[in-house]
Amino acid sequence: MHHEELAKPTSTGHLIRRIIPASRRHLWHSDRPVDPASVRLPGRELWILHPAGEPPPAGHNPAEIQVLLLDGSWAQAGDMARSINGWGRRIRLPMSGKSRYWLRSQQEIPGRFSTVEALLFLMNALGLPETHDALQLQFELHVYAGLRNRGRRTEAEAYLADSPIRSAFPEVLESLNHPRPRPDENNRNR
User: Fold this and answer.
1) In terms of CB atoms within 10 Å, which of 26, 131, 185, 190 comes out highest?
2) Using CA atoms, how far apart are residues 143 and 139, in angstroms rounded to an integer?
3) How far is residue 26's CA from residue 190's CA, in Å, rounded to a whole number?
4) pTM score > 0.90 for this model?
5) How far apart are CA 96 and CA 48, in angstroms?
6) Number of domains in the chain
7) With 90 as the cut, is the pLDDT of residue 47 above it?
8) Maximum Cα interatomic distance, the chain, rounded to a whole number of Å
């Protein structure tokens, strides 16, 4: 993760860490390189997801690979990719459609997806539908809640129109429509 992403609540790297507890985060600073030995897991082939990589090899076993995701803006991810050149196999995934990451402007540029969306495409490529679906729901909820938190209710409702969270989390969505008392209001009622 680029160090500038660390403070951004919209970072999908934070989401991955919450949903996949076994994941690890390594902070990248241009002046403090990450030691590859601190990243690599023994007995696994390191795949670095990158649009300039090769297609995934046939017959890959998910238990034998480790995936390195570059989390940052597109420019930051480019810098990170150059600094880790040669660490592992660069893998390009079959990614199509339009980004669902409406919290940043990338969904307007064809072929640009968030870090978690790249992971979702990888889960499909690896044949892990249950893991994919569970992460997809959390990602969609992350984006929807982020839009609402920014006061973009009209856009949030448009996002919700074709989101699977409408049927997966109806109680959660309903609870977001009820105002919560402010902390000072709770003190007045005592």
Assistant:
1) 131
2) 6
3) 46
4) no
5) 19
6) 1
7) yes
8) 65
